[in-house]
Amino acid sequence: MKKLWIAACYACCLHATAAFRPVGSTTLGQDPQTVNRLNGESFQQDPLVTLNGMLWDAILAIQYSSDLGYQYAVFWTADATNASIRHASVSRRDLRMSSLWETFTLSDYNQSDDDGHDVISLGISQGDGTLHIGFDQHDNDLRYRISKSGVATNPSVIEWTADIFGPTLDYLPGLEFLDKSVYFINITYPRFLNIPSNARPSGSDLLLELRVGRSGLGDDWLYTYTPNRGWNQVGRYLEGVNNNAYINGLDFDSHGLLHTTWTYRDYVNDTGQDVAVEAGPNGPENNHDMDYAFSHDLGTIWLNNWGQQIANTTAEEPVVPISAGITIFSIPKYGGILNQEAQTIDNEGRIHVLNRENTTGVERWYHYWRSTTAAWIRTPLPPSSELYSVNNITGTPTVIGKRGKLVVPPSGPSSGMLFAILPSNAPNSSALSVLASTAAGHFRDWLVLWEVPSGCVAEPLFDRTRLREDGVLSLYLVNGTEVQVADFEF
Ligand SMILES: *[C@@H]1O[C@H](CO)[C@@H](O)[C@H](O)[C@H]1NC(C)=O
Ligand SMILES: *[C@@H]1O[C@H](CO)[C@@H](O)[C@H](O)[C@H]1NC(C)=O
Ligand SMILES: *[C@@H]1O[C@H](CO)[C@@H](O)[C@H](O)[C@H]1NC(C)=O
Ligand SMILES: *[C@@H]1O[C@H](CO)[C@@H](O)[C@H](O)[C@H]1NC(C)=O
Ligand SMILES: *[C@@H]1O[C@H](CO)[C@@H](O)[C@H](O)[C@H]1NC(C)=O
Ligand SMILES: *[C@@H]1O[C@H](CO)[C@@H](O)[C@H](O)[C@H]1NC(C)=O
Ligand SMILES: *[C@@H]1O[C@H](CO)[C@@H](O)[C@H](O)[C@H]1NC(C)=O
Ligand SMILES: *[C@@H]1O[C@H](CO)[C@@H](O)[C@H](O)[C@H]1NC(C)=O
Ligand SMILES: *[C@@H]1O[C@H](CO)[C@@H](O)[C@H](O)[C@H]1NC(C)=O
Questions:
Q1: I want to staple 268 with a disulfide (CB 3.0 to 4.6 A). Which of 30, 39, 281, 406 is the partner?
Q2: If DSSP codes are grouped into helix, strand and coil, which group holds residue 314?
Q3: Is residue 448 assigned to a domain?
Q4: How many domains does the chain have?
């Protein structure tokens, strides 16, 4: 672990004095000048992933007396000759030796829709060192690429060029026998998640979640990847019934349990209307409720808040909107709840959700969390009159404004704290504020830790893997012209 800054009087005045310091900012590349954001969307989940180099990199790591590895990043960048065409770029940097990114561009694939769904999501198998990307998806055929094995486990001997990736596939290797017109069609929102070692009974180490269908009408599916073997289907775990579930995220707790929270969006029949890029009448005003379920076995059996079984994907019994005990907070349509904002799990196994509501006539960010005794608490973030922020940050949320993130620092001096990374929703603002609250203060004692008046035009994302490995928070930010990675220590 890197040395973390220790607040001088941690016990008495806690985060009032906690340091949250920028320690460096680097540029990945130029952000395409599209109307809709292609880089930096909350549901993209992971555009930044860090992996310890294993094998002989582990030996080097000992010499350098550090457990840092390589950090990997993905972003779209415009074609040099035609800005209406974008290519996926993949970068890496050796965190031990340099802050310089090495980047290659997959110029054999042209991205051309100006559609904010069409992000790139990155996953890495720790077991075989393959990189996986899901990209350019909005209700279309699967677009997925996998790298050669060893790329991330033997980084110092790999030549970092586009040749490490195979072609764009419309299926998942290992599942060639599945009917593509049923399973790999109408795909949106692919997201990968590393499976922790205590949750790998089958040896799989990477999860893929995606939606089949469309806004208001869709199902969520899960797949697992086994190193050197390929993909396996877990099944349909969230079935929409004249609606679709929008997850805030998927997170493992320290015992290997998988938790998710979501909101439902009801379907409005929009036959004959142009809904190609944005959702049209199937917009977030049709979102309702805050739901929760968890799984002990990587997503096959699902339990409700009280541990009662509600789904079994092997028996093709998914969680459905009427499943018992899933609705934690009943939030009406037109209640201002947004889809896919943020969730995280703290070191005590409490799940925290960030979303927003307008149930009082004022749109505000809300923090929902599950206590260690399975009770849920729902608190709006303090109004701007009670929380001093140069960005007036908590006074800015709008129904479809830029989404924030929740971050739990690893064990150490900041243990017990919860950070909210909030992008201003004020018109034309690119301000960014980082707030913190504490378990001791029942997560009601929000204060601003750090903020800037500009620099964040998209939704801020972060590297969850690096945070766990070395305690550094790497934020993925778009400042209007560049895609950047800003590092913080605390
Ligand atoms: C640039 O790419 C777009 C999208 O593929 C295409 O429609 C357009 O004709 C291209 N422009 C030029 C000058 O080639
Ligand atoms: C991508 O766009 C370039 C430039 O317009 C074009 O030459 C190339 O054929 C396109 N590639 C594919 C795979 O469509
Ligand atoms: C895919 O979308 C088309 C067009 O909306 C629809 O007809 C078809 O049933 C969908 N298939 C699946 C598996 O979602
Ligand atoms: C939507 O309405 C059209 C006609 O207006 C009808 O044909 C179609 O079945 C409806 N779709 C759904 C999913 O209800
Ligand atoms: C899940 O369903 C499968 C297939 O029907 C069945 O064999 C298994 O026992 C079920 N598991 C549980 C925990 O209900
Ligand atoms: C919140 O709801 C009130 C009353 O319904 C409405 O006037 C206001 O515009 C809403 N705020 C936002 C940001 O949508
Ligand atoms: C802060 O936000 C609140 C709520 O939107 C608004 O009433 C107030 O005028 C804002 N203050 C400043 C200084 O912008
Ligand atoms: C936001 O920017 C647009 C385009 O530059 C401009 O037309 C609009 O007036 C701005 N809005 C505010 C509140 O500054
Ligand atoms: C983004 O950051 C770069 C590097 O600091 C700077 O040159 C550029 O002007 C910034 N863009 C905007 C829109 O602020």
A1: 281
A2: helix
A3: yes
A4: 1
Nearest CA residue ID for atom 6, ligand 4? 271
| Pairing of β 405-407 and β 258-266 | unpaired
- Distance CA(106)–CA(83), nearest Å, equals 15
Nearest to 292 by CA among 351, 244, 224, 210: 351
Q: What is the rounded distance in angstroms from the CA atom of residue 76 to the CA atom of residue 427?
A: 25
For the CA of 218, the nearest atom of ligand 3? 14
Task: Tell me which residue range forms the domain holding 459.
Answer: 1-30+341-490
Q: Is the CB of 430 under 6 A from ligand 9?
A: no
pLDDT band at 414 (very low <50, low <70, confident <90, very high): confident
d(CA 452, CA 280): 33
- Per-residue pLDDT at 278: 59
Q: Does residue 227 lie in a domain region?
A: no
Tell me if 50 CB under 6 Å of ligand 3. Answer: no
Q: How far apart are CA 438 and CA 348, in angstroms?
A: 13
- Long-range contacts of residues 177-186, Cβ cutoff 8 Å, at least 24 apart: 178/233, 180/141, 180/142, 183/212, 183/221, 183/233, 184/141, 184/142, 185/140, 185/141, 185/142, 185/212, 186/139, 186/140, 186/212, 186/213, 186/214, 186/218
Predicted confidence at residue 276, as pLDDT, reads 62
Q: What percent of the chain has pLDDT over 70?
A: 92
- With a 6 Å cutoff on the Cβ, whether 109 touches ligand 1 is no
Q: What is the mean pLDDT of the chain?
A: 91
CA of 392 to the centre of ligand 7 (A): 6
Question: Would you say the pTM of this structure is higher than 0.70?
Answer: yes
Contact residues of ligand 7, CB 6 A cut-off: 384, 392, 395
Q: Which pLDDT belongs to residue 18?
A: 65
Give the DSSP letter string of 267-312.
Answer: ----TTS--SSS-GGGSGGGEEEEEEEEESSTTSEEE-TTS-EEEE
Structure confidence by residue, pLDDT tens digits, 183-232: 999 999 999 999 998 887 779 999 999 999 988 899 999 999 999 999 99
- Least confident stretch, 272-286, 362-376, 387-401: 272-286
Amino acid letter, 490: F
* Averaged pLDDT for residues 404-425: 93
| Ligand 8 center from residue 476 Cα (angstroms) | 25
**Residue with structure tokens 């599942």?**
175
Is there a domain that residue 165 lies in? Answer: no
In a domain, 21, yes or no: yes
Ligand 1 pocket, residue 83 CB under 6 Å: no
Ligand 5 pocket, residue 312 CB under 6 Å: yes
